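Check these lines:
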Amino acid sequence: MVENRPFLTVLSHVVLLLGVLIVGFPLWMTFVASTHDQATMLRPPLPLLPGPHLVDNYVQVLTEGFGRGYGGAAIWVTLANSLVMALGVALGKIAISIISAFAIVYFRFPLRMMFFWAIFVTLMLPVEVRIVPTYGVVANLGMVDSYGGLIIPVIASATATFLFRQFFLSVPDELTEAARVDGAGPLRFFRDVLLPMSRTSIAALFVIQFIYGWNQYLWPLLITTKESFYTVVMAVSRQANVVDATPSWNLLMAMAMLAMLPPVAVVIVMQRQFVRGLVETEK
């Protein structure tokens, strides 16, 4: 029997509300700033309530860009580039990792575990550590200023490979034997048995890797020189660091709000699968 303690109930709700305020207040201020004009944002104190310029600011950012500091490019171009990169990174990581884990678990070949541990060791070598040789390879292949250059160097994932491997090891051997008796080959077993069982894990990894690809900054900054391939994270950074001018904070905050929408939409749409993929123990 769970003891009912009103004090603990009130305290837990207070802590929860405090956490919501801490997380939500910067988002609220970002939205408020995106609804005012530049003069209001430069005049203290900062407003706490929305202003009358919401439509004007968002329309200008979506259609005209900033007009300075960022070359006048519209944000929809950077949003499209970020979407292509995030989808490419998420789908590429999942595809490569699940196939690698399938080969490591279900095929017997020489040095199988050595290859797995070689993949696993790459966890200690993030993009920032190997960025110079990676850039050299990509540049020699002529992939600068291309979607391939943005996506391919960052689609390998040791973490996803490890998670899929652990899940495949938990699949009962009886399923493998039953598929073999029914005459199913490796690819059919992978397609008809493992993929449906991995649905929640794939969904959870997709959300994580989509956000990872969307938030990439350093690699796109190095590999792109044309504005047509800039991502939205780069656009926000460039506008916030204009030289010899005051940033257009109202437009910058409008861009930041628009940049948050796709990841939030992915999390909301896939929330149930994401949670099940993280907490589900019985497959």
